[in-house]
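Illustration 12: F-box protein.
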Amino acid sequence: CVAIETKEIKRAGSLFTPGCKPVEVKPAAIPGRVKVVFETLLPSLCNLYTQMIKCRTKVECKWEGDAEDKFCVRHVSSTFKDMNGKRVWDRHAAIIILNAIVNGERKNNKQN
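Figure caption equivalent — predicted structure in token form:
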């Protein structure tokens, strides 16, 4: 649902399943831009937090010109909180993301 690729790294990843829908969409302060918010739950990594962590990702996008295919991501920010509202440390959030993504896709934890 959300894939971010930088010019330098040439990598993309998604924390969200293909059917994920935004929980919030609203115009940004700058005309021609829109803010979209996605949320997902991810497994925690230690006893410092609850068993699941809520990842809230805000994406600010804009259209360049009149063409629909000129859609650009301008800013992305994520916050991580446990189910009690406690903020997750940045280094722990990075580990949670790395544990959730494999080869640019969210891990499938289903047993065969």
